[in-house]
């Protein structure tokens, strides 16, 4: 017999008002499908879409991080890629697109700086699936955002990397 709460519960529509997509500038594959999803939902709901990109300073070696020209070039590359995503979202039909750019550890920058700035009620992140891995795992940035963001987070993966039913571990007896 169903619990009284379930008996009284009625399904209602869930509407998001501000969506943020976190783009990994170094990983187009994992970002691509998440970007498609975020754009689709933002367009369906006719809501603002923030496109967030973080320059990972940990990717630079000591010499690169101390060279102003190298840092400027790296910042410009990230900004150019972010602008390309903004243009693609606008071309898709999203009227309100907000670019957000930061530097540091991506998960922390997204949660601590970008979320308070934009105030999304949905964050979309991509997560790459490594071929040949026995179990699919969520990436470190997606895991951090999922754990610490104060709003709903959806992790989107490449549909071609989804496990096949035969890939599931057999039931234990």
Automatic annotation (TrEMBL):
Q: Which InterPro entries match?
A: Rossmann-like_a/b/a_fold, Universal_stress_UspA, UspA
Q: Taxonomically, which superkingdom?
A: Bacteria
Coiled coil segments of this chain: none
Q: Which organism is it from?
A: Schleiferilactobacillus shenzhenensis LY-73
Which family would the database say this protein is a member of?
Belongs to the universal stress protein A family.
Every UspA domain range: 16-157
Species lineage, top-down?
Answer: Bacteria, Bacillati, Bacillota, Bacilli, Lactobacillales
Q: What is this protein called?
A: UspA domain-containing protein
């Amino acid at each position: 017999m169903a619990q009284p709460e379930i008996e009284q519960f009625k399904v209602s529509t869930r509407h998001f008002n501000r969506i943020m997509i976190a783009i990994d500038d170094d990983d187009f594959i994992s970002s691509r499908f998440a970007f498609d999803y975020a754009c689709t939902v933002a367009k369906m709901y006719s809501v603002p879409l923030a496109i967030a990109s973080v320059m990972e300073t940990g990717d630079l070696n000591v010499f690169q991080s101390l060279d102003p020209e190298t840092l400027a070039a790296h910042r410009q590359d990230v900004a150019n890629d972010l602008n390309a995503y903004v243009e693609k979202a606008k071309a898709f039909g999203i009227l309100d697109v907000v670019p957000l750019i930061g530097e540091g550890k991506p998960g922390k920058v997204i949660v601590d700086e970008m979320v308070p700035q934009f105030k999304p009620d949905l964050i979309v992140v991509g997560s790459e699936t490594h071929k040949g891995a026995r179990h699919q795992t969520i990436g470190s940035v997606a895991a951090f955002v999922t754990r610490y963001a104060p709003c709903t987070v959806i992790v989107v993966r490449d549909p071609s990397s989804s496990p096949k039913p035969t890939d599931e571990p057999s039931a234990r007896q």
